[in-house]
Amino acid sequence: MDMRESEMSIDDAYHLHVTSTNKAPLGTVVVNPEGKIWFWNRWMVAKSGLSWQEVVGKKFTDQFSDLSNSRLESAINDALRHGLSSLLAQSLHRSPLPLFHTLSDTTTRIQQSIQVIAIEDRSHQRFCLLMINDVSIAVRKEQALRKQAEQLRSIAYMDALTGIPNRRRLDEYLQDEIRRAARSDSPLSVIMLDVDQFKQYNDNYGHQAGDFCLQRISHALKAALQRPADLVARYGGEEFAIILPDTPLAGAKLIAENLFKHIMNLAIPHEASSVSNYITLSMGVTGLQSKTHISGSILLSQADQALHQSKHDGRNRLTVFSETPHQKS
Amino acid sequence: MSTELTKLTELQADALIEIFNIGVGHAANSLSQIVGEGVSLSIPRLEILDSSQIEELSSMISSKRICPVSQDFSGFIDTRAFLVFPEGKSMDVVRRMLGENIGIGDLGEMEQEALSEIGNIILNSCISAMSDSLQSSFQSTLPVFHRGSIDNVLISENHFVLIMLHINFAIPSDRIDGNLIFLLSATSFNGLAAKIDDFIQAIS
Prior knowledge:
In chain A, 46% of the residues lie in helices and 19% in strands. By secondary structure, chain A is an alpha+beta fold.
């Protein structure tokens, strides 16, 4: 025992201990060997509205009946029966005890992290010490950080001009979907498309009009793809890529036809085009054959080759990739 | 340290696996209750290693950097116990338990606390089962989260025996393999072996 403590009378020492526990900015509860509340500090009184007299001597689970068969009850039992200490994480339990920041507002409980510690008295009787920490502020900070991280993440994956996914997102998504397709042996198609004679459009109407044109095309492509797993991304410049999971080539061709219609309906004038009076697209499509292992970049380059074939053949059309070039679909 | 000290007979090992399986069974119930879906835990086998075989530990855990949760238990044996998952898997476990999309990609404070509790539930359940079966009582510290290399985190003393249990952690549609490790002195190890013998005699 410390010198100063030995100079103090037991009564004074006891008083000092109780005062310190009562002044502590956390909840302290002691449960006796019969599972009854033996001590309840002032913080608990302030945050629960339950006075010392109301709770002391009551069984913990009678006082808090919604905690019967809970993790907190079994942690208390572990301490009393086995001498084992436990931790109740806020992230797994939120707010086990009815504790509130102010008693005038009992709609939101304090977020709690609870430590349950087995202690013994001098005659080796087991008691249980509960320490209840208010982690509300830490939780709010963590949530704010997580929200920020998610925002940053979505910005990092978004094309600034058009608001649709960018190439980084496309590459990751394609990789995931190739893996998934291989696992479930399902088809996967990829379309690459390009705005016909976009340079002439820019030269004729100006860059701002060019930007606006790309935005309208992006929105139209996005609107035309109705399944949640379909992804359209801006690949770069006036080039877009579309990933179609669970879609065989025949299905991808139908989707491409539908895309042509949507862009035609936009009817964006393009006087400088040699193809039409309106904006048109050239497309190339390829598919993942079942049981073949192809990387995302090979798949994209196949679709790109088919796209170039479309350009070569006069634009405003779709070409299906084939191993032997210059062969039309 | 002589080699006989660090062995369990097949019967002793089976009894210990049995006791631990009772423990992780209880832990699985607690975890299922928390996450609201069926979690199942099982311990298929155990290995006993001594300080000379420490090199083998890294290959068994299949990861150099780990984020284990530990607790110290004292009673008729003193042991430091760990729940260990290979690097990256700790995060998977927490993610599944919290049912949230954790975007930051690392174990933040909230996730560390959740992992500590998961370890706490599993380790306490194992020790409770041991305490019930072997009729001896223990005391424990609160769980502590660590992060580091196997050498730094697990090995604190020069002489020890290590009981290594393989634990399968099954959450619907996912299975994660980890390890429970109990680090104890040769004296404690012998004490444990003797208690297991008493247990075997009592039930046979």
